[in-house]
Amino acid sequence: MNQSYLDVKEEVAQAIAEGKPVLALESTIISHGMPYPANVETALKVEEIVRQAGVIPATIAIIGGRLKAGLSVDEIEYFGLKGTAIPKASRRDLPYLVSTGSDGATTVASTMIIAALANIPIFATGGIGGVHRGAETSFDISADLQELAHTKVAVICAGAKSILDIPLTLEYLETQGVPVLGYRTEELPAFYTQRSGYKVDYAMESAESIASLMKAKWNMGLQGGIVIANPIPKEYSMNPEVINNVIEKALKDMASLGIKGKKSTPYLLSRIAELSEGSSLHSNVELVFNNVRLASEISQCYYSTP
Ligand code: PSU
Ligand code: MN
């Protein structure tokens, strides 16, 4: 891979060179996933949690056409303030943004691409994209799933939101050969709630066992990523009936406004936050912290096992 489009922040480059643990983080969650200033506060707190765990954070984004692995505090502030004015960048958007010297907020897919380019095998976020409800007619399947099929990065998330068709998302991942692991759970968590009613492939009891599965997959030469689903802590989880009603309403509003394509997911996320009057935002922030803590632990184990 050609790394001439990539800028790795000094402390990140140093950690990678010394074989010390590093953790990738995405920027769509900052610009499109949460409102200002909660987005900046969360992104900075996330970096702090990672550091406290002895891991170097590398928030990933595109700035002025450069692929960035590791942002400064000012850059994080800039992404949060500009919010949705920064285009959401998935795999197909990278060539345009890079060749025109533009900014881009990286999704799970493009964060994985840049993390892999920088040699960072672990990435923590809130939720991944998936097969949308109604995909049989809209064909709306997130590019995140194709990236998980091909790119060597493990993604720690809180499962999938029920804005998606969860069983179809799991079928798609199975077809693509992506292991879906549950951290201390048999069930895929549904982002705001601990359960979705659908099973993960394997329940894993420890960060060590997850790190060792990652090594086994990649040492065998199997391509692609791994999904590690970490349930939201009980005290921050939402009432399933309340959140599901909000999601149904957001989906109806989206259909009546005719919103499609790359605008779908950001619209649904912000509509859900509005309709739940901020209580979903609080859960969202807490589940990200929880994912980052687990991911830091996995990162420590991964880098310390031969
Ligand atoms: N799901 C969430 N929160 C998010 C996203 C998805 O619960 O912030 C973001 C992620 O960046 C993800 C992207 O990669 O949306 C998926 O967008 P799309 O469905 O358009 O591929
Ligand atoms: Mn889509």
**How do the SSEs run, as a string of H and E?**
EHEHHEEHEHEHEHHEHEEHEHHH
Rough outline: globular
Q: Runs with pLDDT <50, length 5+?
A: none
Main sheet strand line-up: 1-4-3-2-7-8-11-9-10
Average pLDDT for all residues:
96
Per DSSP, the total helix count is 13
**Category by helix and strand content:** alpha/beta
User: What is the name of the CATH architecture?
Assistant: 3-Layer(aba) Sandwich
Number of DSSP strand runs: 11
CATH structural class: Alpha Beta
CATH superfamily: Indigoidine synthase domain
How far do the termini sit from each other? 25 Å
Strand content: 5-15%
Which fold name fills CATH's third level, the topology? Indigoidine synthase fold
What hetero molecules are bound to the protein chains? Answer: pseudouridine-5'-monophosphate, manganese (II) ion
Helix content: 40-55%
Give a short synopsis of this structure.
The chain is an alpha/beta fold. Helices cover 48% and strands 13% of the residues.
What this model shows, in words?
This protein has helices at residues 10-17, 28-33, 38-52, 73-82, 94-99, 108-117, 135-138, 143-150, 166-175, 207-219, 240-257, 264-275, 279-304; strands spanning 6-8, 22-25, 56-63, 66-69, 88-89, 105-106, 122-124, 154-157, 180-183, 202-204, 226-229. Strand 3 (56-63) and strand 4 form a beta hairpin. The mean pLDDT is 96. Helix 3 packs antiparallel against helix 4 and helix 11 crosses helix 12 (264-275). It has 13 helices and 11 strands. With 306 residues, the protein is α/β, with parallel strands linked by helices. The protein has a single domain, classed as Indigoidine synthase fold, CATH 3.40.1790. The structure holds pseudouridine-5'-monophosphate and manganese (II) ion (MN). Pseudouridine-5'-monophosphate is lined by residues 26, 28-29, 33, 90, 107-108, 126-127, 129, 142-144, 161, 191, 262, 265, 269.
